[in-house]
């Protein structure tokens, strides 16, 4: 077999393994119901983006009344690209795990690096904007050259963002590289929003105009940036390959940290709080979201500051996700994370009620610590939402947390805490999907009631949400007793599910 034939054989084998890895993914082992639910949710998201693209000309006319739709959209091109890059830095991953086994085999490292770069392209982050921009371009661009140039220019900018992300994630110290990139993006966003807004919008509009006019220098420059970043990414991959193996990696210290010692010193609840803290920061799945959550504190007020003034009700569904802090997302799997220590708690003579009560206090405290700085920023960025956010905090930490705790007993299953956080359907179910839908729509009756109250909307929203939340907070011992009773009845059933893996 010649060298070229051998190389072709290796390429075919690697691509075959990639396909088998995809076919054997966890999603395909799920039941039919959760597959239908997940596909339905994906279809709804794509349809929503498509409708957003159709409505975008009207929305842009409200924001930029003195501009046509296409120039107005191009004015937002740089902010959209920065937001896309920020999303990628947090969520887009390199297929590292799937190539570790090849590092000990007689396979060219250059070929493995090429495979990683090739596999990184067919990811959702390179396609999720297309259902939004395609219907918009079809409506506002002239048929022919302008339409194709707009589409080609958008694809070029998307793959440039992709190559920047891959270059950062392929470094020997990706966490440090990502931190530097985040600081740069934050400085650019803050300076642009505060001091150079008009200049950035003008530069963004000019970039879009050059793209649809077919300026060859812009496309050549973009192609050169893309090719250069790919070469740098491949070079970085070849250097960092052997740091991907588990051998030699620094593990978390078994010694308690200062925060854990403070938590453990709290009477009654302290030992459970220490376990909960370790569960959050020492596992890959939970720590990825928990460490990113502080970014929401400045991001939401900044978004409100940049957007044109609107009513209160437009933000209630966003506030219900934000007001409860990380607990809103984590408590969807409230009893699914204890797979490492639940056996110990169940085997000992531990009070399940105290265990659940301490967990509730812990996530209420986390939500409060997040709420205080956010309210301070809202006071300057969007004071009209100050009281509604405070009321929503009481509502989420009251009835919403109670609902998640009670339903979580039946939804619990063992989850591998060392698996990735995003696009991981492990532990998902149709019941859990319905639970979250119910939580999101539970605020609708309160919004209707607020409309009927003879006061301004911000005061009315605060009144109904705060009253409901305080009622559940004052009676939390009663509903926690109901949750613990349900857990006692299902304890051994849940233990058998925890031991499935």
The gross shape turns out to be globular
Strand content: under 5%
Query: How many structural domains in the coordinates?
Result: 2
What is the total tally of β strands? 0
Annotation keywords:
501 residues, mainly alpha, 2 domains
Describe the structure.
This protein has 501 residues and is an all-alpha fold. It starts with a helix and ends with a helix. It has two domains: 215 residues, no CATH class; 242 residues, no CATH class. 28% of the residues are buried. 72% of the residues lie in helices and 0% in strands.
Short recap of the structure:
Helix content is 72%, strand content 0%.
List the helices and strands and how they pair.
Elements: H1 3-23, H2 32-63, H3 69-75, H4 77-91, H5 109-120, H6 130-140, H7 145-169, H8 174-194, H9 197-212, H10 216-240, H11 258-264, H12 270-281, H13 284-292, H14 296-306, H15 316-322, H16 327-330, H17 342-347, H18 352-381, H19 386-411, H20 430-441, H21 444-452, H22 457-474, H23 476-498
Helix pairs in contact: 2-3, 2-6, 3-9, 4-7, 4-8, 5-10, 7-10, 8-9, 11-12, 12-18, 14-18, 15-19, 18-19, 18-23, 19-20, 19-22, 19-23, 21-22
């Amino acid at each position: 077999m010649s060298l070229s034939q051998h190389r072709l054989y290796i390429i075919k084998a690697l691509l075959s393994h990639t396909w088998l890895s995809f076919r054997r993914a966890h999603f395909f082992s799920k039941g039919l119901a959760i597959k239908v639910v997940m596909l339905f949710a994906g279809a709804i998201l794509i349809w929503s983006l498509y409708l957003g693209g159709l409505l975008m000309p009207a929305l842009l006319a409200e924001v930029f009344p003195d501009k046509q739709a296409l120039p107005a959209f191009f004015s937002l091109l740089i902010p959209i690209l920065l937001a896309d890059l920020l999303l990628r830095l947090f969520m887009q991953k390199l297929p590292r795990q799937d190539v570790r086994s090849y590092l000990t085999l007689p396979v060219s490292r250059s070929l493995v690096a090429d495979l990683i770069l090739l596999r990184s392209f067919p990811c959702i982050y390179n396609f999720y904007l297309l259902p939004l921009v395609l219907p918009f371009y079809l409506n506002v661009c002239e048929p022919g050259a302008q339409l194709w140039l707009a589409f080609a220019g958008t694809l070029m900018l998307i793959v440039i963002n992709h190559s920047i992300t891959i270059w950062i994630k392929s470094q020997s110290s990706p966490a440090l590289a990502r931190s530097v990139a985040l600081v740069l993006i934050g400085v650019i966003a803050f300076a642009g929003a505060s001091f150079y807004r008009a200049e950035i919008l003008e530069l963004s509009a000019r970039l879009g105009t050059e793209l649809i006019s077919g300026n060859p220098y812009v496309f050549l420059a973009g192609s050169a940036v893309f090719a250069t970043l790919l070469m740098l990414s491949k070079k970085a991959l070849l250097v960092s390959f052997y740091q991907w193996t588990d051998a030699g990696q620094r593990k978390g210290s078994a010694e308690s940290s200062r925060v854990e010692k403070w938590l453990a010193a709290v009477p009654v609840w302290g030992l459970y709080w220490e376990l909960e803290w370790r569960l959050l920061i020492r596992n890959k799945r939970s720590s990825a979201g928990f460490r990113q959550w502080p970014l929401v504190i400045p991001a939401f007020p900044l978004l409100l500051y940049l957007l044109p003034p609107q009513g209160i009700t437009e933000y209630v569904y966003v506030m219900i996700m934000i007001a409860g802090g990380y607990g809103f997302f984590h408590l969807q799997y409230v009893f699914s994370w204890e797979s490492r220590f639940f056996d110990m708690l169940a085997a000992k003579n531990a009070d399940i009620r105290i265990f659940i009560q301490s967990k509730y206090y812990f996530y209420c405290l986390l939500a409060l610590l997040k709420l205080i700085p956010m309210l301070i920023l809202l006071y300057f960025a969007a004071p009209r939402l100050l009281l509604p956010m405070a009321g929503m905090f009481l509502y989420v930490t009251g009835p919403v947390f109670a609902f998640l705790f009670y339903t979580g007993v039946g939804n619990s299953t063992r989850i591998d805490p060392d698996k990735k956080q995003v696009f991981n359907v492990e532990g998902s179910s149709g019941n859990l999907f319905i639970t979250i839908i119910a939580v999101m729509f539970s605020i609708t009756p309160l919004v209707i009631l607020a409309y009927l109250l003879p006061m301004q909307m911000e005061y009315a929203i605060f009144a109904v949400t705060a009253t409901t939340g305080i009622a559940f907070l004052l009676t939390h011992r009663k509903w926690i007793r109901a949750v613990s009773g349900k857990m006692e009845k299902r304890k051994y059933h849940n233990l058998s599910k925890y031991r499935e893996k």
